């Protein structure tokens, strides 16, 4: 059985149909890439899968339970405990230092501050962020902030990591480094990864890709 | 997956000319002269076909039963002959048109020929592009794996392939987005 599944999701923003019967499955430990043109509904689909947006119609199942119908009080611990996130825009808490930002999911999971900060720090050298632990997000470059966000997404070893253009602000070498680390870490902990990207070289790190067009997930016929 | 050495040394000679000519005859029976003109207009801008190439290819296609010659027009000479695609020819062309090309660098002419012919003949160009994208990404996954597990030399060779395949993929995306426009131009 799949770990995460979307069935026939529909979602409108006013008159705009963002998702039209979008269906998708993610297996445990699988790395799935979501590709497609700008505005096709990739982020919307990701947010529905992660319980951030509630679809107008359709179902989302995680680990055998339906989660789209849950109220906010029930969805929020799910997001905190089982899911990790790297968002496309505005991700770090500006009042916190970089290491506090990374430690945040652990702190929210009631890990003691000392241990949380220590674990958070261990990510900095691996991401080429040595010495930036105490900076606030306003004092980081776009690419540095993105790597801090990635560490924050992975630090609590989520069951599923949702990443929206995680390498969008990075040059190719840094982007590759980040993807190597993401894949390595996901494989080591059995984390499923759903990554939205328009970069084929990033998608090539995934086990499988799907294409979203006009709010639909395309079924690409098996190759002969 | 090919070993990387083979990949690096592999030189692709894709035999698209006979299949492209079959596609043009699928559109309508043609004289050799018209075939050359159509081919050069759509697919031979950099490298027009010579009459020798055209008639040699047509002779081979005829011998193999892919094409038959119909002598309707009175008179003699090669330009009087119309070439008509056979059932065998149409089957072979159709299979070629639908199948993704093996992902290798420098494919653009073949990809372009398939898309254009599919649109001319009102076939499923978008389905073909989807299959080609899947084939490209599969190859890119293999090369990414080589890169992650191999030496720096392997990684650099794999990267060369990856960047070229990525260029193809960008072209595939752009073409997918512009299919309607292209169909109008091709359909004239
Ligand atoms: N909060 C919102 N309010 C209104 N419309 C929205 C909102 N969020 C998204 N949309 C619309 O929904 C559609 C899908 O948007 P979405 O953000 O999912 O696209 P995307 O595939 O992630 O694009 P991109 O590659 O540019 O990030 C678009 O037409 C977009 O304008
Ligand atoms: Mg988006």
Structure write-up:
The complex is a heterodimer of chains A (224) and B (188). Chain A is of the alpha/beta class. Chain A has a single domain (4-223), classed as P-loop containing nucleotide triphosphate hydrolases (Rossmann fold, 3-Layer(aba) Sandwich). Helices cover 35% and strands 25% of the residues of chain A. Chain A has helices spanning 42-49, 72-82, 98-108, 113-121, 123-126, 142-154, 172-189, 200-203; strands at 4-13, 16-26, 31-35, 57-62, 65-66, 83-86, 160-164, 192-196, 208-213, 216-218. In chain A, strands 6-7-8-3-9-10 form a six-stranded mixed sheet, with helices on both faces. A four-stranded antiparallel sheet of chain A has the order 2-1-4-5, with helices on one face. In chain A, strand 1 (4-13) and strand 2 (16-26) form a beta hairpin. In chain A, helix 3 packs across helix 4 and helix 3 packs parallel to helix 6 (142-154). The longest helix of chain A has 18 residues, at 172-189. Chain B has 188 residues and is mostly helical. Chain B has two domains: 4-98, Winged helix-like DNA-binding domain superfamily/Winged helix DNA-binding domain (Arc Repressor Mutant, subunit A, Orthogonal Bundle); 110-186. Helix content of chain B is 67%, strand content 5%. Chain B is built from nine helices and three strands. In chain B, strands 1-3-2 form a three-stranded antiparallel sheet. In chain B, helix 3 (32-42) crosses helix 4, helix 6 runs antiparallel to helix 7 (125-149) and helix 7 packs antiparallel against helix 8 (152-177). Chain B is elongated and about 65 Å long. The model of chain B is unreliable at 1-14 (pLDDT under 50). The complex binds adenosine-5'-triphosphate and magnesium ion.
In terms of topology, how is this protein built?
The complex is a heterodimer of chains A (about 220) and B (about 190).
Chain A: E1 4-13, E2 16-26, E3 31-35, H1 42-49, E4 57-62, E5 65-66, H2 72-82, E6 83-86, H3 98-108, H4 113-121, H5 123-126, H6 142-154, E7 160-164, H7 172-189, E8 192-196, H8 200-203, E9 208-213, E10 216-218
Parallel strand pairs in A: 3-8, 3-9, 6-7, 7-8
Antiparallel strand pairs in A: 1-2, 1-4, 4-5, 9-10
Helix pairs in contact in A: 3-4, 3-6
Chain B: H1 4-9, H2 16-27, E1 30-31, H3 32-42, H4 51-63, E2 67-70, E3 82-85, H5 87-98, H6 108-120, H7 125-149, H8 152-177, H9 179-186
Helix pairs in contact in B: 2-5, 2-6, 3-4, 6-7, 7-8
């Amino acid at each position: 059985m799949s770990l995460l599944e979307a069935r026939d999701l529909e979602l409108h923003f006013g008159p705009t149909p963002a998702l039209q019967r979008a269906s998708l499955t993610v297996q445990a430990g699988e790395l799935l890439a979501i590709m497609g043109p700008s505005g096709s509904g990739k982020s919307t689909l990701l947010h529905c899968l992660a319980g951030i947006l509630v679809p107008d119609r359709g179902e989302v199942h995680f680990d055998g339970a339906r989660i789209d119908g849950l109220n906010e009080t029930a969805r929020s611990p799910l997001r905190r405990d089982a899911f990790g996130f790297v968002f496309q825009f505005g991700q770090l808490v500006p009042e916190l230092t970089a290491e506090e930002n990374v430690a945040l999911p652990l702190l929210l999971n009631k890990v003691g501050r000392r241990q949380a900060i220590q674990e958070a720090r261990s990510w900095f050298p691996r991401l080429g962020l040595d010495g930036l632990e105490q900076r606030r997000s306003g004092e980081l470059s776009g690419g540095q902030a993105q790597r801090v966000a990635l560490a924050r997404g992975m630090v609590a070893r989520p069951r599923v990591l949702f990443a929206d253009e995680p390498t969008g602000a990075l040059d190719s070498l840094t982007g590759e480094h980040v993807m190597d680390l993401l894949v390595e870490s996901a494989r080591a902990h059995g984390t499923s990864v759903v990554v939205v990207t328009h970069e084929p070289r990033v998608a090539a790190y995934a086990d499988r890709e799907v294409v979203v067009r006009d709010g639909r997930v395309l079924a690409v016929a098996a190759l002969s | 997956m090919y070993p990387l050495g083979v990949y690096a040394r592999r030189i692709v000679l894709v035999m698209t000319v006979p299949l492209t000519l079959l596609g043009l005859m699928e559109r309508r029976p043609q004289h050799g002269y018209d075939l050359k003109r159509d081919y050069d207009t759509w697919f031979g801008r950099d490298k027009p076909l010579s009459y020798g190439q055209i008639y040699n290819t047509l002779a081979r296609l005829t011998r193999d039963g892919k094409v038959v010659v119909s002598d309707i027009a009175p008179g003699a000479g090669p330009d009087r002959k119309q070439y008509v695609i056979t059932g065998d020819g149409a089957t072979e062309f159709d299979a070629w048109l639908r199948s993704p090309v093996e992902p290798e660098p420098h494919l653009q002419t073949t990809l372009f020929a398939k898309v254009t012919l599919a649109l001319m003949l009102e076939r499923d160009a978008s389905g073909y592009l989807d299959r080609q994208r899947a084939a490209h990404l599969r190859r890119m996954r293999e090369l990414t794996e080589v890169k992650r597990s191999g030496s720096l030399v392997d990684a650099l060779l794999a990267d060369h392939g990856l960047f070229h395949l990525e260029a193809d993929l960008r072209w595939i995306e752009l073409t997918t987005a512009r299919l309607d426009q292209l169909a109008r131009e091709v359909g004239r």
